Amino acid sequence: MTTELDITETLDVTGVSCPIPVVKTKQAIDELDQGDILEVIATDSGSMSDIRGWAEGTDGVELREQTEGDDVYKHYVEKTG
Amino acid sequence: MSTDSQQTGDDIDGEQASETETTEDELRARIEELEATVAELQELEDAMAAAGDDGQKKMTIIATKGTLDMAYPPLILATTAAAFDWEVVVFHTFWGLDILHEENSRNLKLSSVGNPNMPVPNIVGALPGMDRMTTRMMNKRIADNDTATIEELVDLSLDLGVELQACQMTIELMDYDEADFYEGVTTGVGAATALQHMSESDVQLMI
């Protein structure tokens, strides 16, 4: 499944597990500008719930989309503030 | 008798009139006092709002364990909370100090006794070399699953601005040297520091 979003940068966290996907996502978002979209590619199935929870509990980010397929989980996070 | 009571009644009326005046003055004074208090409280509230209660959450964890399995939860929660932009303090005491000890943190062990879920009976687990074996097995699993090592999580915590504190009393009790700890670890702190952070925190955990 492909996304229609305009991706600014891609973060590859395949192979690593909790808490690294969330922490690396936060660090990558900090480097971006408002309106940018970060694509996060993970293989940790827990990242579906964790990235969603992190985005909901953090100011200045919004989870635009999540996709799942072939043990790869993709997350699209927009920096909103 | 009756005259006496009449006189007394007049006196009472007179007293009541002067009392009413006094009460009115007193009430006015009291209202002014209260108005001043309200103004003070309003100022205090404004000052508190300005002082930056920006809604940032705080968490304090007390880490007391230094076995390989128990070293993970404080670091995983601390790094994740930091990703949420929380202000995080982890106060390490007793065996928890080994998490911050550069050399010891790379050699944390897993006990093969005391956990009935271990595949070997406690009496076998108590044999010499068994702790080393279970530790090796756990480290292999950590590597196979690409789980972060304790050292990586300590570095990550410090990078994210987590304050890792090492209890001064137990540093001395365990005969550790402050130079043995990772660079960036805070030493020279005690129970009062930990309590102060706990009282200001939204989340307090003892692990």
Explain what this protein looks like in three dimensions.
The complex is a heterodimer of chains A (81) and B (207). With 81 residues, chain A is an alpha+beta fold. Chain A has a single domain (9-79), classed as TusA-like domain (Translation Initiation Factor IF3, 2-Layer Sandwich), CATH 3.30.110.40. Helices cover 27% and strands 35% of the residues of chain A. Chain A is built from two helices and four strands; from the N terminus they run E-H-E-H-E-E. Chain A has helices at residues 20-30, 47-57; strands at 9-13, 37-42, 61-69, 72-79. In chain A, strands 1-2-4-3 form a four-stranded mixed beta sheet, covered by helices on one side. In chain A, helix 1 links the parallel strand 1 and strand 2. The termini of chain A are far apart. With 207 residues, chain B is an alpha/beta fold. Chain B folds into two domains: 1-53; 58-106 and 149-206, Hypothetical Protein Ychn, Chain: A (3-Layer(aba) Sandwich). Chain B has nine helices and five strands, in the order H-E-H-E-H-H-H-H-H-E-H-E-H-E. Chain B has helices at 2-50, 68-83, 97-100, 102-105, 122-125, 130-144, 150-159, 168-173, 191-200, and strands at 58-63, 87-92, 163-167, 186-189, 203-206. A five-stranded parallel beta sheet of chain B has the order 4-3-2-1-5, sandwiched between helices. In chain B, helix 2 (68-83) links the parallel strand 1 and strand 2. In chain B, helix 2 packs parallel to helix 7 (150-159). In chain B, 25% of the residues are buried. The mean pLDDT of chain B is 87. The A-B interface holds A 15-20, 22-23, 25-27, 54, 57-59 and B 55, 76, 79-80, 82-85, 145-148, 156, 160.
